[in-house]
Design brief:
The protein has a five-stranded parallel beta sheet. By secondary structure, it is an alpha/beta fold. Strand 6 (about 185-190), helix 7 (about 200) and strand 7 form a beta-alpha-beta unit. The chain has helices at about 15-35, 60-70, 90-100, 115-120, 135-150, 170-180, 200, 210-215, 235-245, 275, 285-305, and strands at about 45-50, 75-80, 105-110, 125-130, 160, 185-190, 205, 220, 260. It is globular, with a radius of gyration of 19 Å. About 40% of the residues lie in helices and about 15% in strands. Helix 1 crosses helix 5 (about 135-150) and helix 5 (about 135-150) packs across helix 6 (about 170-180). The longest helix has 20 residues, at about 285-305. The mean pLDDT is about 95. The chain is built from eleven helices and nine strands. It starts with 15 loop residues before the first helix and ends with a helix. Bound molecules: phosphoric acid mono(formamide)ester. The site of phosphoric acid mono(formamide)ester (CP) has 9 residues, from helix 2.
């Protein structure tokens, strides 16, 4: 039931068998999330610190609830209210938390590689909750859990990932993970937001939005990440919505039962219209529920009692 590494730094580092095992354990954890009492004691006596240098609602709260549902002591540290404001380095902050006997540090940071650096210098297990433009492994795991729950597996599924691929750690982690599990990720977005090496990562690039959506089993919109753009990479949000937004008309190119996904937060009317966000096939709220289950599975597999 354990992972081979002390840390969860990226989907890149996980094997297909490990991903399958995480999803299996998450399926059991979901029963706890949906139960009235929501209590297990696998992490009694363990401590989990959420060290967030960037904003978050879903990831931070779901890790905190995941820890609490299993009896862990959980603490939130945000850059704004910590000694980071006094100039303390990531290394010193990590070592300080380590010295307090922390079992798991969940870190989100704007610098790609920050969790990998921290993991080398602390005894605690480190989980990457999103590092710059690199990876967001727990998001991809919850996305894969949601897809597997709906389709029973991944083999041959066409997963259309639409939007700002360049800045998206969610897209990177999903492409790597979906490929490992046998799905076929297809990407489409503005040419200015398409990484040159995307095909090497395992995704094919669709020539048009219609091509990307046609026959897709899953349609995954991505958040436009204005905060990571140093210069304007598309003319306006209205223009983006017109050419790259998913709406009731173009979603019809996908299969009738195509699952609509988005990591959140959704810029309604930009990446997805409200009709698509809230449609019958939208799994967006289910993704949030599944995020708690997947994060419980990871905490349990890293330091939980058998
Ligand atoms: N999907 C995601 O990472 O959302 P938050 O930024 O709210 O954590």
């Amino acid at each position: 039931m354990k992972l081979k590494d002390k840390d969860v730094l990226g989907i890149k580092e996980l094997t297909a068998a490990e991903i399958e095992l995480i999803l299996d354990i998450a399926a059991d954890m979901k029963k706890i999330v949906l139960s009235p009492s929501k209590k297990a004691h696998y992490l009694r006596g363990k401590s989990v610190i959420m060290l967030f240098y960037e904003n978050s609602t879903r990831t931070r709260v779901s890790f905190e609830l995941a820890g609490k549902y299993m009896g862990a002591d959980t603490v939130n540290v945000t850059a704004a209210g910590s000694s980071v404001q006094k100039g303390e380095s990531l290394l010193d902050t990590g070592r300080t938390l380590d010295a307090m006997g922390t079992d798991i540090i969940v870190i989100r940071h704007s610098m790609s590689g920050a969790p990998h650096f921290l993991a080398k210098h602390v005894r605690a297990s480190v989980i990457n909750a999103g590092d710059g433009m690199n990876e967001h492994p727990t998001q991809a795991l919850l996305d894969m859990f949601t897809i597997r729950e709906r389709f029973g597996g991944f083999k041959g599924l066409k997963v259309a990932i639409i939007g700002d691929i360049y800045h998206s750690r969610v897209a990177r982690s999903n492409i790597i993970g979906l490929r490992k599990m046998g799905a076929e990720p297809v990407v489409y977005g503005p040419a200015t937001l398409m990484p040159v090496d995307i095909e090497k990562m395992g995704a094919s690039v669709a020539p048009t939005l219609k091509d990307a959506l046609t026959g897709a089993d899953v349609v995954m919109g991505l958040r436009v990440q204005l905060e990571r753009q140093k210069k304007a990479l598309f003319p306006s949000q209205a223009e983006y919505a017109k050419y790259f937004g998913i709406n009731s008309e173009n979603i019809a190119f996908a299969g009738k039962n195509a699952l609509v996904m988005h990591p959140g937060p959704v810029n309604r009317g930009v990446e997805l219209t409200s009709e698509v966000t809230d449609c019958e096939n939208s799994a967006i709220n289910e993704q949030v529920t599944n995020g708690v289950a997947v994060r419980m599975a990871l905490l349990y597999m890293l330091v939980g009692r058998e």
